[in-house]
Amino acid sequence: MDSIGIGIIGCGRIADMAYEGYRAIPAVHIAAVCDSDEKTALRRCAEWGAQRHYTDYRRLLEDPAVDAVEILTPHTSHVDISLDAMAAGKHLALQKPMTIDRVSAERLVRAAASAATVCKVTENYLFHPPVRFVSRIIGEGYIGKPSSLSIKLIAGGKGGWPVPPSAWAWRLREFAEGRGMQTFDHGHHLWSTARFLLGPIEKVSAWIGTTASVIDSPAAVMWKYRGREAFGLCEYVYSQEMEIPSRYYANDEWIQVSGSAGLVTINRCTGNLLAGPSVSLYSGNEWRHFQIPSDWKLGFVGSAWNFVRAIRGEEKPRLSFPEAMEVLSIDLAIARSAETGREVRLRPDGAILSPLKAYVEKRGELREARAAKRLLAKTESLENSEKSCLLAVQLTRGLPSRMSSPALVREDMRIGLELAGAAFAGGVKRMSVFFMRGGEVRVEEDRLPADPNLVITSSASAWADVLSGKQTIESTYLHGKLKLTGAIETALSLKKLLRL
Ligand SMILES: NC(=O)c1ccc[n+]([C@@H]2O[C@H](COP(=O)([O-])OP(=O)(O)OC[C@H]3O[C@@H](n4cnc5c(N)ncnc54)[C@H](O)[C@@H]3O)[C@@H](O)[C@H]2O)c1
Predict the structure, then answer these.
(1) Ligand 1 interacting residues, C-beta cut-off 6 A
(2) What's the order of all strands across the beta sheet hosting 344-345?
(3) For the whole model, what pTM was predicted?
């Protein structure tokens, strides 16, 4: 392929940014444009130096000069245009959100899995340079173990670029159907970023208000990350009389991630409400500020590069369709939570858990928390709790080094540990110990194994006593200070292996 011919379908407000992305890339050209409004199509064709214009996207898909399409039409048209583009053998980058419901998203994911071309969802925030920089800061451990991510989105009634009434019209129809332009449409960027920085989301709770009868703000959204003690908060504000300095939409966002050793803040995304450095880091008892390029347009440039590199086979497309479906599910879960006034749980593949399953899961968690509390009350005084919590965790971390003989591990074993202690967040610390056949031992924290052979539930002090040799595991068990759930043979092997 000499030069990649791009076809732009939907030449409205945000198509300006798509064009900015592609025009920065060598060996890529705009081959054709399509807009159902002919005047718009003609204007964009001239502005962007395209060879042809269309008003029916199916004609554009028949054009052999078009290798790849960027789809920038209203959300309800995304499914048909994407399926037709795949059938026509075109690579495709589809604007977020991929569609408006889970069923049609699953259809798209299935079709993309068997398509011979690259399929991605354009999510410019994942390529916003400060977001990428902060992801590296977190990954390299500057803020320690992250436990909280907060986002403030502030939208103004004035400022920014002009938005044509036609671009509001379809968004108002979406609002009437329960998909607000702040929490659903714009929310996609925020949940993608939250997921990119700290991982998959397990459950959400949301309150969504309304301003001027059409804007889904003020709003407050909370979420928990899957399998660990880390939470997210997003606060939406709409300040009708305020002007936001911005070359793009009249809004801006601040994102802060806090961890056990520091915190890091992205000081702007869409606009320029806060002057100064775009990223600030507090770590090692000092502030450091970074002037990472933060023009919002750069996210689109990065996303266009990713699409082109994916077509050339040089990197993976982002968001992939399954990833985009997970983000869409967060969007839908937030709308559902605000509507029902309840927390909404997501399955690991992103689908919303049915109310019955969510209820059963919640009851299970409550039961576990109550059991941990009872065990704690029975076995531990508050004064020595902090010490024994620390000791129990340290001794568990040291288990790999106290194996009696690696040859004794004849089959893989997955041991879960639930340690109750007042010093632990939520009163309980979960750990996993994996024994691999052949002798390798690995300890993981803040989660139980997915399919454990044995789960040991104990107070931190009782477990610390067992590991430090003050008590045997049998007497601790017989005195009711330690509970075993699972295969008793695994417990016996464990005793032998670790000389408990
Ligand atoms: N990444 C971002 O930050 C960002 C920002 C705004 C919008 N968007 C997304 O981009 C898409 C478009 O939003 P917009 O604000 O540019 O809307 P817009 O209304 O300004 O533009 C949509 C254009 O598509 C045309 N169109 C509608 N149906 C069509 C069809 N079937 N075939 C061809 N053309 C058709 C319309 O005439 C219009 O010109 C949406 O998915 C939106 O969520 C993304």
Answers:
(1) 9-15, 34-37, 40, 57, 72-75, 77, 95-96, 124, 164, 166-167, 185
(2) 286-290, 279-283, 262-266, 251-259, 146-159, 231-244, 219-225, 201-208, 344-345
(3) 0.79
